[in-house]
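User: Can you help me understand a structure? I only have the sequence.
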Amino acid sequence: MIIRIDDIPEEGLSLDIDEEGAELEKLAEGLDFSILSPVRAHLDVTATGSDVFVRGSLDSRLRLVCSRCLKEFEYALKTPFSLLFSKEREGGREKELTTSDMEVNYVEGGELDTNEILLAQIALEIPIKPLCVEGCEGLCPHCGADLNDGPCGCKTEERTDPRFAKLKDFKVE
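Assistant: Let's start by predicting it. Here is the structure, written out as tokens:
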């Protein structure tokens, strides 16, 4: 949905959005996640001068890949968010960015695309190293077996890095 900033009434907008995941995925190529369910969101949009405030929450289910065992799993996402957009950018001069500058999103063309906002918030909320379960054991570095299914056939002695073999006999007093 496109929101024209100049058309936002003085009292603001309150929007309930139900967008299919496939529509959001079309906005970006090479995503490392899939959106399984429709994204349900509530947005409160207010405009003051050249600034637009967007507060809201979104709820969806994603398919991620575990960073330890490489299995796909479902991830429930429910998060609030708050954004500031500005139509005006300070002159074209280069300047050092401050912390407050990093919190502002600049809009060109006077329109906000809610799908882009939702996709960006989903991407920001995905864990850096997603895990299928908290105690995921991952893969054996030697044979590649999934250690969640049980121990692999590798011998413990073979797992010792030869560079640290001498430390095996080290005794602490």
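Now, to help you interpret it: Residues 2-136 form one domain. The mean pLDDT is 85. Let me know which part you'd like to focus on.
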